[in-house]
Amino acid sequence: MMDSASLNTEFGLAKHLRFEAQDGNILALIDIPGAAQAVVSLFGAQVLFWRPAHSLQPVLWASSLASYAPTKAIRGGIPVCWPWFGAHPVEPGLPAHGVARIRAWRVIASGLDNDVVMLKFGLNLDQDPLIPQPVGCEVTLRIGATLSIDVRTHNRGQSEFVFTEALHSYFSISNIEAISVDGLDTRQYLDQLNATAGLHTQAGSIRFSGETDRIYLRAEDRCVINDPSWGRRLRIAKHGSQSTVVWNPWIDKAAAMGDFPNDDWPYMVCVESGNCLTDRITLQACQSHVTGIRIDVETLAPSPPP
Ligand code: TA6
User: Fold this and answer.
1) Which atom of ligand 1 is nearest to the CA of 168?
2) CB-based contacts of 116: which residues, under 8 Å, 6+ apart?
């Protein structure tokens, strides 16, 4: 990985984008006055923080106990789960959620266009012991008043490449019992807490009253997190994605994770966009697939006084 000085020389963008070394990792610091601020980790090509200028609160949740040592996945922001989601389908001893979020990525491009900073990362997998096929992965961020992330998978080999993935977005919310998630009505989902029970069908909005861990399948729709207490809606549009995962660990699971503050579970929800389980992607030789999200924040008009 290039050092921060070389990155600033080659990819820095005056006051809008600079690179800073931190605990063996390198962070990209983005500041677009009047548009947004953001922090991106080169370890994992992971957005850690994003706040549009008009938003009073950050949009993404990040754990105050997250490990930033470049060996363990960073808890929070938008981890890139690739080229498998959850446990590896054949070797359960391999790292959960694939290798992308636990690898150092290289910067391959940067740019500024109309108050949007573009940052493009590539992952060198040729010598990766966990990826036995010639495949490429690139992450392109477009950061401004909205946040876009595209993950491009390219099969450089001659045999087919099958993968699953998710942009594992952690959203900051007022309180898990005060929000709802729309966009998945009538979609079928696997309840990961009772996976043998088969598929369920979503009826209406999703509300939360306990640990929730659901994989919605053949769900291409935009999702919306309604947060009336904070007077906002978080809108997650997506493309190239058939699956949406909705997760809140609740009390016990939060307490069981060393990098998750025990009392923080009410203030986050994951709405993840990807291709999971039977929505896996099969690429033939030289084929590519792009999965992407676009997040924006809608400010709600204050409700009239009672
Ligand atoms: O996306 C939901 C999930 O698969 C949950 O089952 C939970 O394991 C979560 O991901 C976090 O996984 P991690 O490996 O980051 O602790």
Assistant:
1) 1
2) 32, 35, 142, 143, 144
Interval 185-242: pLDDT, tens = 999 999 999 999 999 999 999 999 999 999 999 999 999 999 999 999 999 999 999 9
What lines the ligand 1 site, CB under 6 Å? 73, 86, 96-97, 168, 192, 213, 245, 247, 270, 272
Domain that holds residue 131: 4-299
Residue nearest to atom 8 of ligand 1 (CA): 86
Q: What is the CATH number of the domain that holds 46?
A: 2.70.98.10
Rounded Cα distance, 65 and 59, in Å: 18
Instruction: Give yes or no: 168 in active site.
Output: yes
Q: Which of 54, 272, 289, 298 is catalytic?
A: 272
Confidence of residue 303 (pLDDT cuts 50, 70, 90): low
289 vs 56 pLDDT, higher one: 289
pTM across the whole model: 0.97
306 within some domain: no
Using alpha carbons, list the distances in angstroms from residue 72 to 88, 99, 130, 286: 17, 10, 16, 31
Question: Rounded to 10 degrees, what is the CA torsion of 195, 103, 254, 275?
Answer: -30
Q: Is the pLDDT of residue 281 over 80?
A: yes
- Take atom 10 of ligand 1 and give the residue whose Cα is closest: 86
User: What is the best residue among 75, 85, 97 to mutate for testing ligand 1's pocket, by most ligand atoms within 8 Å of CB?
Assistant: 97
User: With 90 as the cut, is the pLDDT of residue 166 above it?
Assistant: yes
pLDDT: which is higher, 149 or 92: 149
In a domain, 197, yes or no: yes
| Domain count within the chain | 1
In ligand 1, which atom is closest to the CA atom of 85? 4
Alpha helices (H) in the chain, listed in sequence order: 4-11, 250-256
